[in-house]
Amino acid sequence: MKVKLSESLLALLVVVVVIVLLWCGFVAAQVPISGLPAATLPLTGSEVVPLVQSGVTKNAPARAFANTTSINNFTGVDPLGVIDSTVAIQVALNTGESLTCQGTYKVSAPLLIESYTNNGQQLSGSGNWANAASDDLSTTPPPSACVFMPTSALSGKPVFVIDGTPVVGSQLSWVQGFKMRNLAINMVNMSDVAASVAINQIQAFDGFYENVRVMNDGANKRAWLFNAGAFTTTLLNTQGNILDFEGISTSNGVTTITVINHDGGSVIANNANSLKFLGGAFQGASNTKFTLSSGTDFQIATDVEGGGVYLAVSASANFIRSETELQGFTGTYMTGTPGADSIFWDNQSNFNTYPAAMTSGSIQLNNQGVAGISSFLSGALGFNYYLEVGRTGLDALLGTVANTNDFLSGTAAGDAVLSSWGASTNLWLGAAQTPIAKATPTGFTTFGNGSLSEGIGLFQPLSDTDALVVKAHAGTLLFDVSTSTALTSFNNNLGLIGYTGAGSGQTWRIVTSTGESIFQQDVVQPATDGASIFQVNNAESGDVLTLQTNATVASSMLTDFGGLTLGAVTGSTQCLHVNTSGVVSGTGADCASSGGAGSFTTLSASSTVSGAGFTALLASPPAIGGTAPAAITDTNGIDTGTRVTGNTASVNLGATSFQSEILSTANNGFGIGRAAAAAGSGSRFYMGHTQAASFASFSAVASGSNLAKFVFWGDDGSTYNTVPAIFSVDVTGTVSTGVIPTTMTWTNQNSTGVVTTDLFIDGSQHVTLGTTTSPPAASTGIASIGANATDHRFKFVSGTAVTVMSWTFGKTWVNTPVCTVSEESATPTTLGISALSTSGGTVTGLAAVTTVTFDVLCD
């Protein structure tokens, strides 16, 4: 059967067949995603990716599907480190987008993160860069790491600067929340100076650095430098040699930086606060690990190894808390003195030995074998401070008093208190595990055989009672001082004895039964003169004897109210009595009775005063208290006026009254003699002169000064003032140490009363006769003859054998004189004169005899 299709149906069938054929072809051409070829990595971010958006199929670049953007996507970035990528990386940072990096990047200028657009920005390296052999940072980052390689152009400059200060036109001047992870900064090309810095954070906070390593940073480069304005920042699992925290002042500094598990060498902090170093390690053979000054709140709980110095601190570094592991450290623990409220609680003793095991609840503070101070202060004068020790509460207290009656009644501000606290409890003191003393609410008890040494002991009872009691071991009362009576009593059952040494050399004693006191020497010296310092009363309390001192010794006074009697002198029956009227009397028979008014006692040659006999002074002393003049009279005291011996008053002798005079109506003379077996030790009479005002100093005499004179006087019938002759010694040259040139002069009075100077003898052995003026000038020769008269007689007596004698005149003659010589010897010889001139001459013809006498007459 044949079916004939209409044209319209046929057309529809053709369409369906075509559609089916097309569909089958499309299905046959489909390829799975896994079958697609791999794209070239890393993506640039510009690759087109299809997507359906609101039911419409569209495309977008690949970077739109990621939360971060690779800096490799930015034009000009070379991840191979060949081309300088500084400008391109700065462009990437300026976008404010979080960035990733993988590769090595050459930079030649600081990379600046300093805009509010950088808030919350994150720069992350490509994954974990720990090597397969270690869970720590690798020595060399793996090829997939992100490494910034600054050139030498960055020497003395920072590589990264995080600083919000330059922001203009924004209310926010700090960079907030910038983060850096999983990357390295290799400073190998930068000079090793402090200004070469890997990361410099300034006005920025909430910063975060994790798994960031600074490589090849030498001994002086800074891995991190934090300046004023940097705060609330954390370093986690980081590495770098020096961390430097440099504020401007304590109020404008670096604060609240936490460093966790850092591997480094040194920390430097000035004007920084609240720095914490937890975990990790700080190492080095000779570097200083932590230098801290001008700040507060430093917590160090890390590991320190190597040598050098652990802590270099100053007094401006306060509240240092050190809990450091120093097991591998062999250097100096600390230099300088830390500030207030510092605690050093380090886990080691003697550097290479761990401390002994500590029991639960105990605290061991170790200052590394050097002197230290632990301070506990309230911080203000008005607040006390105390340490509390107890079982379940306060049992013992050690504190300082801030206000009156703090802790204990009677305390004052600044006092220290050590006390048991519970009711009816005691305070014990001990030594070497032995009880020494016990303080109770009612008293103080000492134990054992020890001694109690005090500079000053004060015993003041709350009420008058026995203040000090000493008993023997058996309980016998030995010593008792009581304040309970009107007059303080002192009781001693055995008497008192004083010694110069340990139980020997008794110097004083008080006998209890009689009250007798015996002293080898008793010196009483008042604080002020004028009061009676020594007083003796009788049994009826009447005054018997007093001694009163005065600043002038002569005015000090010994007073006896019933008369003074000296009796029973050892070795004699003499005695002396002075009654209340001042009458001195004496008697024999051991003072059995007193003599009448005006009587006196005669001192014999054997009588003594202070142990010295009178015999050597006066063989027969005159009476004392009689009418006859005393043997020695001092009219004006010890060093003033005139001392007269043998007369009742001084006499002007030669018109002068003298310091000392010996006058007598009997044969008078002044004799000096000495008995001595040694030769050359005869009597001597010394006279001299000093130009000092007193004998307490020295002042040299000078030319013209008189050293001494023998002045002869006589009674001319009307006065003792006539002086006919004087022998004088005068200074005639320059005086120096040990040298005083002198001339001796004789002066006589002739029958007409004229006084002339007859003889000069100087220190050059020159003898001058017949001049009335001053000594002539020195001249050579053994004799001088004056030249002021026409007739001069010179007599020469030789004591040795001579043949010729020469002489010079005292002064040069105008014309040559005419001189003759005549001999007066027993055996005459022929003498002559030769070499005669105006200045002298020579006597010739002298026999070599022992003694020769002759006269020379010159006209």
Q: What would you say this structure looks like, in words?
A:
This protein is mainly beta. Helices cover 4% and strands 37% of the residues. It contains two helices and 61 strands.
Q: Mind sketching the topology for me?
A:
Layout: H1 7-29, E1 48-53, E2 56-61, E3 69-70, E4 80-84, H2 86-94, E5 99-101, E6 103-107, E7 111-113, E8 122-125, E9 146-150, E10 158-162, E11 175-176, E12 179-186, E13 197-201, E14 204-205, E15 208-215, E16 222-227, E17 230-236, E18 242-246, E19 254-260, E20 263-264, E21 266-282, E22 288-304, E23 309-313, E24 317-322, E25 332-335, E26 343-344, E27 385-389, E28 396-400, E29 416-420, E30 427-431, E31 434-440, E32 443-446, E33 466-471, E34 477-482, E35 489-492, E36 496-499, E37 506-510, E38 517-519, E39 532-537, E40 543-548, E41 557-560, E42 564-566, E43 575-578, E44 584-587, E45 608-609, E46 612-613, E47 632-634, E48 643-645, E49 660-662, E50 706-714, E51 722-731, E52 742-749, E53 755-762, E54 767-769, E55 784-785, E56 792-797, E57 805-809, E58 819-823, E59 832-834, E60 840-844, E61 853-858
Parallel strand pairs: 3-5, 4-6, 5-8, 6-9, 7-10, 8-12, 9-12, 10-13, 11-14, 12-15, 13-16, 14-17, 15-17, 16-18, 17-19, 18-21, 19-21, 20-21, 21-22, 22-23, 22-24, 23-25, 24-26, 48-49, 55-57
Antiparallel strand pairs: 1-2, 27-28, 28-29, 30-31, 31-32, 33-34, 34-35, 36-37, 37-38, 39-40, 40-41, 42-43, 43-44, 45-46, 47-48, 50-51, 51-52, 52-53, 53-54, 56-61, 57-60, 58-61, 59-60
